[in-house]
Amino acid sequence: MLCKRLPRPARAFVLLIPSLLLFSACSSGIIPNGGVNPASSPPVSSGPEERAAQPVASTPNATLPAPVPAGSGENAAALGVVRGPQIATLQISRSKADSAMAAFRTSCPGLLRRTDQSGLTQNSDWQAACDAVKSWTGDSISFFATYMDAVQVGDGKAFATGYFEPEIAGSRTRQRGYEVPVYKRPSDLIDVDLGQFSDDLKGKKIRGKVQGSNLTLYDDRAAIESGSLSGRGLEIAYAADPVEFFFLQVQGSGRLRLPDGNVMRIGYDSQNGRDYTGIGKLMKDRGLLGPGESSMQGIVSWLRRNPEEGRKIMQENKSFIFFRELTGPGPLGAMGYPVVGETSVAADVKYVPLGAPVFLSMDRAEPNGLWIAQDTGGAIKGSNRFDTFWGAGDRARSIAGGMAARGAALIFLPKASVQRLGR
């Protein structure tokens, strides 16, 4: 997730704009230049300075008293849940509920087969709702109220950022003005499941390459941008602007607007195994960002004003994303289904079952309402941490680029799950 998103394995990195300052995951809304510039040239100005949308203030609902956690709170079940208010009493717009019900219907096959790492549900718990949603013709809010109950995970204190699907100038072939390579996954990039070697390392994976008899680190961003992968036939396209492409990588997927006006959609294919460094936080810590510059748009503006230093700063993020062309609907989230603007949200699977509805009540009005957890993100970790997906286009870019909202979150679970949890 697309999301300032850090590399997320299944989600095609749709990336995450996780936080404005972390700038790590599900947000990369950069306005493509009217013209284009070769990679060897410094980034050029994109015209009038792009600004994040002004937040619409809202008063969030109060959270409920937090339950006493069981153990270290490694997942939602251990952290504890409390029953929330009746779903019918929540302020959910009909249009948001309709979109959420459609996304829930899409997610049902995954809900019925995925292992729920949150510990809150069993696959069979979702069966009644998934059967009913196939032919439901009534009110969408009534659907959720009939088959589900709202619960609060832990203290319920939520933080939400935003991500979107960026569109930048690109070409399928290298030509003047389109010289920033978009690489597919190299064949010598190796995934290692460390859990196969030690039970203590279950769930942990690393990536690298084999040199002689050793597994070593894969090339970092600086090496790749200096040409370490050139000449191997890995280029699937070429971007026009290195700054724009950098933030498309942060999102994990996006669109290339081709010279003939057509669009080529690309999605996450893998990552080089290097740790992600959020350049927004790095720049803020160094005092490089002035007042009002901590949004994605402000960061982009600074990079364009300081091209040489900006290039070096971007290379401090050693993580590099590889892409594949997407020809079906998308972008795809971690469940393997297309994420939907203003409906899909990225969450931590240890605290939210993928496919479950999420209700947000925040201090910013835009993200308030019902969402469906269909994605994940490398920077989206912990309970009540969400990354809202806003789709594509100018509106999506302006909202996602400055999204940072705090408030309260509830998760909708099947009534059977809530009863089993004793809530």
TrEMBL record:
Domain of life: Bacteria
InterPro entries in UniProt: 3D_dom, MltA, MltA_B, RlpA-like_sf
SMART domains named in the record: MltA
Ranges for domain Lytic transglycosylase MltA: 167-324
Keyword Lyase set for record: yes
Alphabetized Pfam families for the sequence: 3D (PF06725), MltA (PF03562)
Record-linked Gene3D superfamilies: Barwin-like endoglucanases, RlpA-like domain
Catalytic activity: Exolytic cleavage of the (1->4)-beta-glycosidic linkage between N-acetylmuramic acid (MurNAc) and N-acetylglucosamine (GlcNAc) residues in peptidoglycan, from either the reducing or the non-reducing ends of the peptidoglycan chains, with concomitant formation of a 1,6-anhydrobond in the MurNAc residue
Keywords (A to Z) from UniProt: Cell wall biogenesis/degradation, Lyase
EC identifiers of the protein: 4.2.2.n1
Start and end residues of each stretch annotated as Disordered: 38-65
Keyword Protein biosynthesis on entry: no
PANTHER family in the cross-refs: MEMBRANE-BOUND LYTIC MUREIN TRANSGLYCOSYLASE A
Protein name per its UniProtKB record: peptidoglycan lytic exotransglycosylase
Protein's organism: Sphingorhabdus arenilitoris
